[in-house]
Automatic annotation (TrEMBL):
Entry keyword Transmembrane helix: yes
Gene name as annotated: Trp53i11
Organism taxonomic ancestry: Eukaryota, Metazoa, Chordata, Craniata, Vertebrata
Protein name per UniProt: Tumor protein p53-inducible protein 11
Subcellular location: Membrane
Positions of transmembrane segments: 64-83, 103-121, 133-151, 157-180
Keywords of the record: Membrane, Phosphoprotein, Transmembrane, Transmembrane helix
Membrane topology: Multi-pass membrane protein
GO cellular component terms attached to this protein's record: membrane
Broad class of the protein's primary localization: membrane
Length: 189
């Protein structure tokens, strides 16, 4: 029996036909503008998103503030862990505390927060930067309240504690400022 020859392969004309290609791209949703005015080159870029859209418009001085915060948290944490008496004396100008454990626990908590600050310094993700700034602002606010209550209860005003309160108020303002600056939507050009 003679083998029947298969029909010759026919070349599709859709690859060369411009109208057909445009129709295909329109069906796939590729090549047209989306609501933000961006032109997607492929369906994959639509599904995965455009990373430029998520890039943070960093306010001036943000990275410097993050570096200063990370160094500050690390320094105070190491001082609280290694020299708890000196840290307490520097703030409250009182006799040495009977137990060093609470101050060392404070140092451990600060060391944990400093790790967050160091990691936030190296990220470009807006959400992580904002959460680290919010963590920082909350920490400074709690420390401001606790120090104020301690001073009122002891009815003695130490110079170190007043400087601590003033610096914490300033740090709260700076952290909240950067928190809102990072969260602002960029202006469309």
């Amino acid at each position: 029996m003679a083998a029947k020859q298969p029909p010759p392969l026919m070349k599709k004309h859709s690859q060369t036909d411009l109208v057909s290609r445009l129709k295909t791209r329109k069906i796939l949703g590729v090549g047209g503008e989306d609501d933000d005015g961006e032109v997607h080159r492929s369906k994959i870029s639509q599904v995965l998103g455009n990373e430029i859209k998520f890039a943070v418009r960093e306010p001036l001085g943000l990275r410097v503030w993050q570096l200063v915060s990370a160094i500050m948290f690390s320094g105070v944490a190491i001082m609280a862990l290694a020299f708890p008496d000196q840290l307490y004396d520097a703030v409250f100008d009182e006799e040495p505390v009977s137990s060093k454990t609470p101050i060392r626990l404070y140092g451990g908590a600060l060391l944990s927060i400093s790790l967050i600050m160091w990691n936030a310094l190296y990220t470009a993700e807006k959400v992580i930067i904002r959460w680290s700034l919010l963590t920082e602002a909350c920490y400074f606010a709690v420390q401001f309240l606790v120090t104020t209550v301690s001073l009122v209860e002891s009815s003695r005003i130490a110079t170190g504690a007043v400087l601590l309160l003033a610096s914490r108020a300033l740090f709260i303002l700076i952290s909240v400022y950067y928190y809102y600056q990072v969260g602002r939507r960029p202006k469309k050009v």
